[in-house]
Design goal:
With about 110 residues, the chain is an alpha+beta fold. It is about 25% helix and about 40% strand. It is built from two helices and seven strands; from the N terminus they run αβββαββββ. It has a four-stranded antiparallel β-sheet with strand order 3-2-5-6. The protein has a three-stranded mixed β-sheet with strand order 4-1-7. A hairpin with a 2-residue loop joins β2 and β3 (about 50-55). The protein is elongated, with a radius of gyration of 24 Å.
């Protein structure tokens, strides 16, 4: 094989190898669905101190939690905050929460 042909084959082999490695990047970590019901609809939901959305939106769409332990807080003006630590376990189905905020007493 001549030098030019060997070089071309080497470049082609490298391109094929690189193309094959594209799909070998980091994998997305597994997640577990969190489903929430309750009210009031305008309450805000945070997971691990990160705003997720209103309770109405979270109830309608759910939240994908990475596998592991998470701190969930639901808050609304005029109500006591609701806090819970949950564990999202792979293969055990969705985390289900029923949130009923209690009004702040007068």
């Amino acid at each position: 094989m001549t030098g030019a042909k060997a070089w071309g084959l080497s470049v082609l082999s490298g391109a094929v190898l690189a193309a094959g490695l594209v799909g070998c990047g980091p994998r997305t970590p597994p997640t577990v669905s969190m489903r929430v019901t309750g009210g009031p609809d305008n309450a805000t939901v945070t997971v691990d101190d990160q705003f997720v959305g209103s309770l109405a939106v979270v109830a309608a769409r759910g939240v994908a939690l990475p596998v592991g332990v998470h701190h969930v807080t639901v808050e609304a003006a005029g109500f006591l905050p609701w806090d819970k630590t949950v564990e999202a376990k792979q293969g055990e189905g969705p985390v289900r929460l029923d949130v009923k905020l209690v009004p702040i007493p007068d």
